[in-house]
Amino acid sequence: MDILIKIAYLVASILFIIGIKKMNKPATARNGNQLSAIGMLIAIIATMIQVEVVTIPEILICIVVGSAIGYYISQKVQMTQMPEMVALFNGFGGLASLGVGLSDYWLKSVENGQTIDNITLVSILLSILIGGITFTGSYIAFAKLNGKISGNSIVFTGQHWLNFLLLAAACAGGAMVLWQQDMIAGIYALVAISLLLGVLVVIPIGGADMPVVISLLNSYSGMAACATGFVLNNYMLIVAGALVGSSGIILTDIMCKGMNRSLLNVVMGGFGQTSSSALTVGGKSDLVVKEVGVEEAAMLFESASSVVIVPGYGMAVAQAQHIIKELMEVLLKKNINVRFAIHPVAGRMPGHMNVLLAESNVPYDRLLEPDEIDDDLANTDIVFVVGANDVVNPAARHDKNSPIYGMPIINADKAKTVIVSKRSMAAGYAGIDNELFGYPNCLMLFGDAKATLTKVVNEIKEM
């Protein structure tokens, strides 16, 4: 039976690796997700056979209850709420790791008086520390994305020193437990400090840094799971945790490169802390803009030969991805070339725009990254910006006082005409004005993106 369990874990690990590899491309991502799910099912069944602490009926009850909650959430959560849901899932993973580490210590050391070997004990301490940080940090990220607390950077004097002292205290508490295993106060202190650290390391991060935070917390949850695998001596959990942790770090690195910023710069506190003169106050702007109506916008689209659509979080809020797909189809019928420029940090989580457009069945080959399309934007008749703000702001190229200075952007301003669909002149998530809106080749199409574009599409159909 032990051999069969190890073989099952090996098969599950292979399915995880193949699944992650397939997720690298949109066309095979769904199949990759299914293979990974099958691998997880095999791992769960193998663990159920192996486990001795709880009974099979208890495990089945937990699976049924958890599956019911997951199904309910999947039916209720809208695509615009995906970033918050991902943040919560990361937090639940951290909480599970903290709970396993704490319960394993309590069962072995406190109740049974066993001597825990140092490797297992270090793994327990890491499970508690990383799990606690992941749990509260993910909840703060959820609250920021959900609007329950301010999405801006929350900073105070001596914040980084306080974080450093708390981390040192956590290490000291862990050392106390290693020196004397029945030092329960050290475990309690570690739990409290880890939960507090999770709050303090995420509140100073705001603005357009949130996609990086989501992927980083995802990595934390994987590392916590990996440490828990050592606690339980479960090879499958070690492999799965290592895969999640490493892939999360790689994704975080990709996000940081997409913003031309270092991970340390993000973690130490991002947008919202520089050059208050660059910030928008009260959502007002001094820019002089030119507004375009529905009929005029339709005429511009109809007379174009090439259109590039730049989606942003505003598209997600308006649930406009389906009417965007219809706009694409109408323009294609008129022999107008339509492509999408997807910035890696557009939206509130990595791949947010890709997921929304895939939901409306936009062909994958029309979704291009900035470096694939930027050089061609000067030859493009219309760049249509839907709810994006910071990722098309030319200030990133030249304004050293701007919080987003140095971040690679989509060069929408190079196009012959730019049409921007926005509800108002309110600033984007980084909290700054977009100077593009005042450019002579830029036209503002105000109103709800879904409602406005529906009118534009109807106008084009009648031409």
Task: Describe the overall structure.
- The protein has 463 residues and is an alpha/beta fold.
- It has two domains: 77-267, no CATH class; 278-462, Rossmann fold.
- The protein has 17 helices and six strands.
- The protein has a six-stranded parallel β-sheet.
- The N and C termini lie far apart (71 Å).
- The relative contact order is 0.10.
- Mean pLDDT is 85; it is low at 270-284.
Sum up the overall morphology in one term: elongated
Helix content: 55-70%
Tell me the radius of gyration. 25 Å
Question: How far do the termini sit from each other?
Answer: 71 Å
> What low-confidence regions span 5 or more consecutive residues with pLDDT below 50?
270-284
Total domain units: 2
- Main sheet properties: 6 strands, parallel
Could you outline the blueprint of secondary structure elements for this entry?
Blueprint: H1 2-22, H2 26-50, H3 56-76, H4 82-111, H5 118-146, H6 159-179, H7 184-202, H8 210-232, H9 235-259, H10 263-267, H11 294-303, E1 306-311, H12 313-318, H13 321-333, E2 337-341, H14 352-359, E3 367-368, H15 370-373, E4 382-386, H16 395-398, E5 417-422, E6 442-446, H17 449-462
Parallel strand pairs: 1-2, 1-4, 2-3, 4-5, 5-6
List keywords for this structure.
Rossmann fold, alpha/beta, 6 strands, 17 helices, elongated, 463 residues
Structure summary:
With 463 residues, this protein is an alpha/beta fold. Helix content is 60%, strand content 6%.
